[in-house]
Amino acid sequence: xxxxxxxxxxxxxxxxxxxxxxxxxxxxxxxxxxxxxxxxxxxxxxxxxxxxxxxxxxxxxxx
Length: 63
Description:
5 strands, 1 helix, 63 residues, alpha+beta
């Protein structure tokens, strides 16, 4: 497994903090801040698509 480079935490209201990370092999990671050992992983392209869809409001029904 490659080393994961984590970005600074992104925190929403109510201390909901997440971290995004990448590795040298082209994988992307997302985890709850402080729980980086329990992450979800996919390709960078998949993470970019997820972020674009969230920004476009396609996940608003989950809120």
